[in-house]
Amino acid sequence: MNTVSSVLSRDAAPAAARRCRVLLVEDSARLAASIRDYLERHSFEVFIEGDGLAVTERFERLKPDLVILDLMLPGKDGLTLCRELRRYDRVPILILTAKGENIDQVLGLEMGADDYVVKPFSPRELVARVKAVLRRKGSKDATVEQRLTRGKLSIDAEEHVAAWAGSAVALTATEFALLKAIAAQPRRAFTRENLMTAAYPDARFVSDRTIDSHIRHIRAKFQALGGDPIETVHGVGYKLAAL
To answer: What predicted TM-score, i.e. pTM, was given to this entire model?
Structure first.
């Protein structure tokens, strides 16, 4: 594969005038150019990086609204980068992978990715996934309660912040959507199918294992602060824990 190593001059575009900004991390120059051209036709501003070792610095400079991240990269692999970015930022991350095995997909979600697309994929599918991930992060639907408090759990949908006893918890866009849906109806036991609808508004099917992976990740983050807002309902799915 050819390596994309040049830094695009558009990095300096003023934030006030910019469109939705995407950092595309892909070392195939041909594929990266194709993705960029298609996304730009849909009003996204795309910046390409092909060197895994340069991604963190590029991310800090660009402050993108979304990262599209290939798994197989020179210098540093995509899963490592996903884990590193997720340590300090909640930017939506969409993984590109040529590996269709479910274990790779789940591992990517465990590391903090919001969604994945398996190669080969159609440009239309990729754009739909990008828009869906951004909707999950940025939706400000006025019909939905924007601030929820359930015991020590607090959720601010407008600011996209979840906290436990006042301490913020860094959730991905998909994790936040799942937690918000569960917290909004504290007496309801959600099936995994119910949660698919809440987390994936594009009506896409994902496996039960993917939902379980997201829930496990949410619980681990809260457990690190001494809490656990989600309870398993055996034979059904999940509900809000007694808080």
So the answer is: 0.60
